[in-house]
Amino acid sequence: MPGLEDLYREIILDHYRTPRNRGELESPPAIETRGHNPLCGDEITLYLLVDGEGDDAIVSDVKIGGQGCSISQSSASMMTQAVIGKPVSQAYALIRRFKTMMGIEGYDEQPGDADVAMGDLEALQGVVKFPVRIKCAVLGWNTLAEALDRAGV
Amino acid sequence: MPGLEDLYREIILDHYRTPRNRGELESPPAIETRGHNPLCGDEITLYLLVDGEGDDAIVSDVKIGGQGCSISQSSASMMTQAVIGKPVSQAYALIRRFKTMMGIEGYDEQPGDADVAMGDLEALQGVVKFPVRIKCAVLGWNTLAEALDRAGV
Amino acid sequence: MAFDLDAVRKEFPILSRQIDGSPLVYLDSGNTSQKPRRVIDAMTDFLENSYAPINRSSYRLAGEATEAFEAGRRAVARLVNASSPDEIIFTKNATESMNLIARSWGGANLGEGDVVLLTHMEHHANIVPWQMLRDERGIEIRWVPLTADGQLDLTDLDRLLDGAKVFSFTAMSNVLGTIPPVAKLCAAAHDAGALAVVDACQYVPHNATDVQAWGADLVAFSSHKMCGPSGIGMLWGRLELLDAMPPFLGGGNMIDTVTLDGYTTAPVPAKFEAGTPPIVEAVGLRAAVEFLEDLDMSDIRQHEMDLTRYALDTLNGRFGDEITIYGPDDVAVRGGVLSFAFRDLHPHDVSQVLDERNVCVRAGHHCAKPLMQVLGVQSTTRASFYLYNGTDDVDALADALAGATDIFGF
Amino acid sequence: MAFDLDAVRKEFPILSRQIDGSPLVYLDSGNTSQKPRRVIDAMTDFLENSYAPINRSSYRLAGEATEAFEAGRRAVARLVNASSPDEIIFTKNATESMNLIARSWGGANLGEGDVVLLTHMEHHANIVPWQMLRDERGIEIRWVPLTADGQLDLTDLDRLLDGAKVFSFTAMSNVLGTIPPVAKLCAAAHDAGALAVVDACQYVPHNATDVQAWGADLVAFSSHKMCGPSGIGMLWGRLELLDAMPPFLGGGNMIDTVTLDGYTTAPVPAKFEAGTPPIVEAVGLRAAVEFLEDLDMSDIRQHEMDLTRYALDTLNGRFGDEITIYGPDDVAVRGGVLSFAFRDLHPHDVSQVLDERNVCVRAGHHCAKPLMQVLGVQSTTRASFYLYNGTDDVDALADALAGATDIFGF
Ligand SMILES: Cc1ncc(COP(=O)(O)O)c(C=O)c1O
Ligand SMILES: Cc1ncc(COP(=O)(O)O)c(C=O)c1O
């Protein structure tokens, strides 16, 4: 069986212990979305600020509130680092790549997706070996997707 | 296994082919009750006339309508012969004895029950070996019991 | 690969059972089907090695059990060509599925005077839930009548559908064997602005089913009639429709969140699966679906068409006027269900005499009392076939019927 | 006969399964229990030799199957001391039983402003059905609060019950293990003129149950938590009460007669059992009941009390302030369910670390979200015991918890 070290990589534990971009943003102007995992009750509140319109739209800030396990917390923390300052289109591409990495079907890569760097997020690859934790890992990502959809730029 | 000859005794087939006391009675004065077997849809309509009151009450006439299988029809036919002209108390005793013969619990004999002759009804004893047919055999008897209860003498 | 009856029969342990020295002639599959070895083994193996809660706990054993359960859902989705496994709801039986439809969709969409169209050949499961709704909120029920040979009489369909909000009908009668033109009826329902609900209980086990090609909205069926375990039924529905429907039963698993003040619901299928589901049953059902797929549903249907033709010819040929077989004669529009009247013998007595030779048939109203009234009978004797039946079973039935005369001496 | 743990364990095939070379430490029986050999064998044997429809057909095989099914009902009646087997209704799970109560009894007897009293420690199955009724017809829901150690705070019971029409409560909390004084609560409900409904899901598997001694009106429980199969639940009710209640699901078997114009209902239990019931499941359930009876429910309870005492002492002793175990400390009023918070680790992570050593616990809200809010947590880790658990399992749990620190390095 896969060992716990495949799951709890050092960088994951680091993000868990010291989550980045935790907090709130005033809403509005920020978009506030909530996600939760009915299996375990984990809850996340995500605040999103987008600057600009259409192709120029940029994720200018993201903050994360709520409680969750090491995997959901660290995944959301790493996600904020990966998307802040990036074009909205790249944020969507990253969501697709991440979900594909998690083995979730229906997210075929689109042209340009490969150019989006996964960086530290690769550390979460081990989660795939623990299927019940996949929902934890994608919780923040689904919440971000919903916020971006609502931003509707 | 028990053979069909245990079930389809000659006297039973005779009552099936030539049912006694078939027909209707005007109601009122007769009491009309219906019974049916939800398993197979068999239906019986029973007409009862009682004469007298209290301990003197007599089953003065019974008629049977409706459709059913050989067992339900012949059992009802024999039943009419056994109860017509008998005191109501004896009719009740016969119902108890018959149900006990059918292996139905909760019908402990009461004093005097043993005096009530079963006569031809003994032929239906073989039904017990065919448990699904017991409901057919007792259909008429349950309907009679309901009619007697309603007569309330 | 041609259909190999002997090989199929060997898969069913009960068919090698001898009662009083002779084999079982099981002709009651319209009621419930027997189970092949691999379905039994799948359940036993799961109970011995892998049983665990599903959806709730996060250790591996529980994750694996959840996966085994969901594999059952995917198998069912594949079998009926659902566009997503999320469109398959597990219930306890087809009856619960029908009640779910009437109560959830009907509860949200039907009121005083709204019309639900049924047919004269429905099973009680597709009648009583609507009658309960009628008693509760005054909807109107209309009925499609039958032709003399037991097919739907569609002459007045447009008028009957006029103003109807639901058309709910069986894809195959459990009494007559009649298979109506399902896709055409769904289209007619939609043209009239009505929801198309299909009771596919008798259809799915015996025919290749494509709910999308039907164009249906909601379809109910049962595991126990298709070689699968008892205790689990299915509802298929179009995803948007299921999404829009209110929940049916409340409790664990169907919620998104619960507070003292109220609850919100989970997405489908969980929304309609309150409480601990039939876990082991879903595992067995998956094995049943794979068994049917391996044999190929079209080959199964062909085998049963041939057998039904043989049965109609044999019984009519041997007994002529002494037997009345209800339903259409054309096996292209009928399944392997033969309800009949035999001489003036009561079905209960017929069944008794057949049982003496281990021929198992059902005698009664077949949970279709309104149809009995239409046929003008109280009950019928019914022989119903499945993939493990052959012409020898039909011959055994005919021989046993011939023997009935000796006893009653009519 | 003293309780022989080794002998009991040998009856459960899955407990001899090794995962990565070490045995399963199954501490999730509050979720669902494992199944003994004789339950598995009873079902397999029935499927291989005796499977047939019940209640509907009249050949011997069907008669025998009906009898086997009814023997399951009689066994359950005996286990909880029902006054007649007719008082036992088979449902699909305890959740359906609760919905049946809310919809049938509640539907007939509750309207705008009527009060239903629940407690803060209820499972969603005893909350959501009443909330659905509230949304539909404006009933009022009140709640019995908890004391600091997780028992019902009955100080204000009289006031809360004043004017209530239903008091529905769990006989044992699936999170806290708390066992309230059931008979006393039933009496209080009756004094106030309220119906006494008991969710006995967690109680019946672990304690000798006497519904008559309780004086309850309606009691719900589930097979899968008491060594029986999934796919079958139970409702016990007083016969006169069940007789007076309207039907719940409509379809075959629950009717007396059906015409185009309407239906009439069969007597209980059939009235509440629409469609093909869980046939094989009832056969397996009977074997489970006999297994429990052979061991003796009082001995099982004693074993679990001892084990719970050992677990409370071991975990508190080894981890002191690092662990918070919810619920009462007195094992006379608690069952073998231990929910806890461990250091500042999230339950999901605790469960993950335990799983590494094959220790199976549940992490989450345990379908009791309102209780989580009362406890001020989002989720807990829960170890729950059954008759096959021993002190070695508790030690394995404690050892695995101790190992958690190494990984997270807090
Ligand atoms: C206290 C309690 N009530 C009700 C239920 C629901 O039981 P089921 O899932 O069998 O419907 C459970 C089990 O999850 C429970 O623990
Ligand atoms: C046509 C039809 N519909 C519905 C049902 C009900 O199915 P179940 O008993 O599995 O709920 C049956 C089977 O009895 C049937 O034949």
Task: Explain this structure.
The complex is a heterotetramer, with two copies of chain A (153 residues) and two copies of chain C (410 residues). The longest helix of chain A is centred in the last third of the chain and has 18 residues, at 134-151. Chain A has a three-stranded antiparallel β-sheet, covered by helices on one side. Chain A has five helices and three strands. Chain A is of the alpha+beta class. Helices cover 38% and strands 18% of the residues of chain A. In chain A, strand 1 (31-37) and strand 2 form a beta hairpin. Chain C has two domains: 5-30 and 296-408, Alpha-Beta Complex (Aspartate Aminotransferase, domain 1); 41-293, 3-Layer(aba) Sandwich (Aspartate Aminotransferase, domain 2). In chain C, strand 5, helix 5 (128-137) and strand 6 form a beta-alpha-beta unit. In chain C, helix 2 (37-49) runs antiparallel to helix 10, helix 3 (60-79) crosses helix 10 (279-295) and helix 11 (297-319) runs parallel beside helix 14 (391-408). Chains in contact: A-C, A-D, B-C, B-D, C-D. The interface between C and D is large, with 92 and 92 residues. One pyridoxal-5'-phosphate sits between chains D (93-95, 123, 125, 170, 174, 199, 201-202, 222, 224, 233, 367) and C (252, 275-276).
Notable features of this structure?
heterotetramer; A: 153 residues; Sufe protein. Chain: A; 5 helices; 38% helix; 18% strand; C: 410 residues; alpha/beta; Aspartate Aminotransferase, domain 1; Aspartate Aminotransferase, domain 2; seven-stranded mixed beta sheet; 14 helices; 17 strands
Shape of chain C: globular
Tell me the strand order in the biggest sheet of chain C: 4-10-9-8-7-5-6
Could you say which structural class the secondary elements and strand pairing of chain C correspond to?
alpha/beta
Structure annotation, total helices of chain A: 5
Question: Which blocks of ≥5 consecutive residues of chain C have pLDDT under 50?
Answer: none
Summarize the biggest pleated sheet of chain A: 3 strands, antiparallel
CATH class of chain A, named Alpha Beta
Topology of chain A as a string of helices (H) and strands (E): HHEEEHHH
